[in-house]
Amino acid sequence: MVEHTVNMRRFCETEEGKNALGMLFSLAIMPVTLSPTKDSPEDLWNAAQRTSCQLHTAFDKGEMLKQLRVTNYTVSRMKTDATLKTTLEKSVQQRCFGISNLGDCSGILSGGGKHVQVTDIARAVNLQEGQTVLHYVHTYQGRLRYNLTYNGKRFTPEKASQYASWTLELLRSLITDMDGTKV
Q: pTM value?
């Protein structure tokens, strides 16, 4: 699965795309063949170019907007149907917090290639419905990387910053307890 966020006006030539405000977050299922243990670092950038071409093709054909229409229709039906609305609200309450842990990304991204030098990785998403907070955790080149994404309707920037600080303190204490070294 490929996560891709773009400015819709830049990529969508349809009327919906021209009138869209903001960004489109899309999960597109695409084959990305890459084996970090077997392939060279150059293979990563070749795979990225192929994936980019596939994404552009999907946008040009309007496939992403079709997916968005179906999703919007389904969610709107769920919100109007009393039984489905109750189910949706319960599932939202149960999914208040999420975590995405990629582990060590150093083996996936070598840090460089012919045209690029990777120094850091950050991941985030815009939360409008559903989850309140989504934690992104991974390591890269021996450093713990942590991003907190929060739903602006439920958290203020100050509360999110405070919550992120508490989470980092917890992570530091867990790491210290695991191997005895201070972080």
A: 0.41
- The answer to whether residues 49 and 120 belong to one domain is no
As given in the structure block, the two tokens for residue 104 are: 């060590």
Which residue intervals of the chain are DSSP H helices? 8-11, 15-19, 41-61, 63-80, 82-94, 157-179
Q: How far apart are CA 178 and CA 8, in angstroms?
A: 45
- Rounded CA gap, 155 and 134, in Å? 12
Considering the domain architecture, whether residues 88 and 101 belong to the same structural domain is answered as no
pLDDT tens-digit map of 12-63: 555 555 555 444 444 454 555 555 555 555 666 676 677 777 777 877 777 7
Closest by Cα among 44, 45, 51 to 26: 51
Other Cβ atoms within 10 Å of 59 Cβ, number: 23
Verify that 169 and 109 share a domain, yes or no: yes
On the 0-12 / 13-18 / 19+ scale of CB atoms within 10 A, 119 is: exposed
Q: Which amino acid is at 163?
A: Y
